[in-house]
Amino acid sequence: MKFRYQARTQSGELQVGFVEAPNKKTAIGILTSHNLFILSITDTERKGLDNQLYLLVNHVKGKDLMVFTRQFATLLEAKVPLGDALRTLIRQTRNPVLQEAIINVGEDVSSGLSLSQAMGKQSAVFSEFYVNMLQSGEVTGRVEEVMGFLADYIERNVSLAGRVRNALIYPFIMVILFIVVGVIMGTIVLPQLGSAFEQVGAQLPFITQWLIVGGKFTANWWWIILMALSVFIISILDYLRTPEGRTVYDEFVLRIPVFNTLLKEMYVSRFAESLAVLIRGGVPIAQAMEVTSRTIGSRVYEEILRKAADSLRKGELLSQALFREYEYFPQLVGQMVAVGESTGKLEDMLLRVSSFYSREVDDAVDNLVEAIQPIMMIVIGGLVGLLFASILIPIYSLVSVIGQQ
Prior knowledge:
This protein is mainly alpha-helical. Among the domains are: 2-45; 168-405, Type II secretion system (T2SS), domain F (Receptor-associated Protein, Up-down Bundle). Helix content is 77%, strand content 5%. It has helices at 24-33, 48-57, 62-77, 82-92, 96-110, 115-120, 128-140, 143-200, 206-240, 243-253, 259-280, 285-293, 299-313, 318-324, 331-343, 346-404, and strands at 2-8, 14-20, 37-43. The protein has a 3-stranded antiparallel β-sheet with strand order 2-1-3, sandwiched between helices. Strand 1 and strand 2 form a beta hairpin. Helix 7 packs parallel to helix 11 (259-280). The protein starts with a strand and ends with a helix.
């Protein structure tokens, strides 16, 4: 079993780590034999539902990762040794999952792994994009610069997610209330209304009949619906974890109207900044393209950039390769890169491209956030009106029939 401990050395220094032992008593004995004063010791092995609940409650938030990355970049810029920086971050981190991941990274680095390799083993905390960008920094010797870039990138994502979340709170509550009211109407109110119509021999409107049938089916077979929905969601999520599923998903989202332009601009900005960092570090451009392809976060762009890297090895210019992929790289990108190639300032042109498209993404997100709430309210208002029409129209018809009789 694996136990996580906090202890102090004889000199009073705080020490945090893991110890392998068959039981807690043995683990305590191992630690005390090393002259450690134990502050706390807990079993880290969780299985089944307990592990899922633990990860749900103690997951690493974007803000936690942002603070960690920013602090890490600051320590590296101050020329603090990597091992000392990781130990400092362990003491400063409050999130237990992130703290455990940093401890594991520190142990792996001490055993000889590179920082990117050690973080790559903690895939639940550090994304593929995060690890690949760090790897590019190791290739160029600019790890602290890349960590600063990652901190800025995560901060932008946290801000974006916060704005979208705030815009969706009210519509989301309205959707939940609409679903609850719809279920109550379909399972309780409308069936009684249907019985009243049958007694007087009147015909219900089509939409009311449809809601009654749906309500009865939901009331009788709700457990089958939940099971089928759960199986469907789990199957989809498992498929999306496969390379094929990830590729299919990336191709799909790049074809969604409105969002496709936003995503393409985001990927182009990411491509330009990552490539500029690598070129500044002296990495050959073909190799830089291959490394960049792994940092984009899209299988579609990864394949395009790998093909471009092969073309560069055959003597083709980067601008020519980008012009050929006009569907994914705007003409402006190819033109700016061509200017950089002709003037010998490719790195500067790439940074300008990244800055331009970063601003475009920010503007597009602001416009999207402003549009989400009114659009959702219009849709919800239409559904609510449809629901009430399915009740009021038959009631009016029923009153008319009774009046004629």
